[in-house]
Every structure is written in structure tokens, then in C-alpha cells.
Write a structure and sequence with these properties.
With 151 residues, the chain is α+β, with helices and mostly antiparallel strands. The chain folds into two domains: 7-77, no CATH class; 87-149, Nucleic acid-binding proteins (OB fold (Dihydrolipoamide Acetyltransferase, E2P), Beta Barrel), CATH 2.40.50. The protein contains three helices and five strands. The protein has a five-stranded mixed barrel. Strand 2 and strand 3 form a beta hairpin. The longest helix is centred in the middle third of the chain and has 23 residues, at 51-73. The chain is rod-shaped, with a radius of gyration of 27 Å.
Length: 151
């Protein structure tokens, strides 16, 4: 008894692989599922396609989709906030004063991109600062930045 792969076998296989992606953190099963869906659609259009060609097309389509993901799409979707990184992620960064420190109130510094998950941070500076000054982060004390004027 010979088993023949039909288009719906590939479609179900593709759907199962894409659903498997829910359980995997790697984003790889999705691309193999898309490859299987593509083979299912091609087999629907060309029902006489040999099994060898089906597997070859699936492997090539899956490989190209995976390569495209890692080459073009994943770099654009990275987390640019630096959240969860060590102290070194914020030391040396430059921000602009948006609120001047007062006697019992800390100043507020704004960064052009979020640093450790936030765009605005309270700060302490030993020097006199005014609105719009650019300051450099020296250290962090709790949730407060210790800064100095940019030279």
C-alpha cells in the first residue's frame, strides 16, 4: 500500500508547525510551517508533483524564510531600551535637563532613546545646571542618576 502526500497533508503540517511556535521562543518552527503551507498550495496547483520535489521545495522555502528572518527582520525588532542590562548600559550616556533640581526636589533628565526602560530619570548633580543642559551619567544610586556637566 503506497502512501501519497496530498495538499491538505502539507497544509495541516504547516498549521501544526505554526501553532507549535506558540510553545517555542525561537521563531523557527513558524518558518518551517510557512514552508509547508507553501508546498501545500503548490501541490494544490500542481497535484502531480513528486514527493522528492515537495520535500526539496519545503526545505528550500523553510531555509530561505528562516535566513530572511535572521538577516532582515529580527535586527529591526530588537529591544533598544537596554532594559535588564547592567550599570554599564547607562554610565556614559548623555541626556538633557528638562527639570532643574530644587532644594528638596531632584532634577529630571531626558534621554533621546529609553535607557534601562525609561526616557526620563531623576538626577543629582554637584554643579549648577539649567534647562536644556546636556549631562553625562557617572553612576546610579537607587533610581537616581549621579551626573556631571558635559565638557
Amino acid at each position: 500500500m503506497a502512501f501519497t502526500l496530498l495538499y491538505w497533508h502539507w497544509l495541516i503540517f504547516g498549521m501544526l508547525l505554526t501553532m507549535l511556535e506558540i510553545l517555542l521562543p525561537s521563531f523557527t518552527a513558524l518558518w518551517f510551517g510557512i514552508g509547508a503551507l507553501l508546498v501545500g498550495l503548490l501541490l494544490l496547483a500542481f497535484p502531480e508533483m513528486a514527493v522528492g520535489w515537495q520535500i526539496f521545495i519545503w526545505a528550500i522555502a523553510s531555509g530561505v524564510a528562516t535566513w530572511s528572518w535572521f538577516k532582515f527582520l529580527k535586527p529591526k525588532s530588537g529591544d533598544r531600551t537596554k532594559a535588564g542590562l547592567a550599570l554599564e548600559a547607562i554610565v556614559g550616556e548623555s541626556g538633557q535637563v528638562i527639570s532643574v533640581p530644587l532644594e528638596k526636589k531632584r532634577g529630571v533628565l531626558r534621554f533621546s532613546t529609553p535607557i534601562l526602560g525609561a526616557e526620563e530619570w531623576p538626577f543629582i548633580c554637584d554643579e549648577q545646571v539649567s534647562l536644556g543642559d546636556r549631562l553625562i551619567v557617572n553612576d546610579v544610586s537607587g533610581n537616581t542618576l549621579l551626573v556631571r556637566k558635559r565638557k
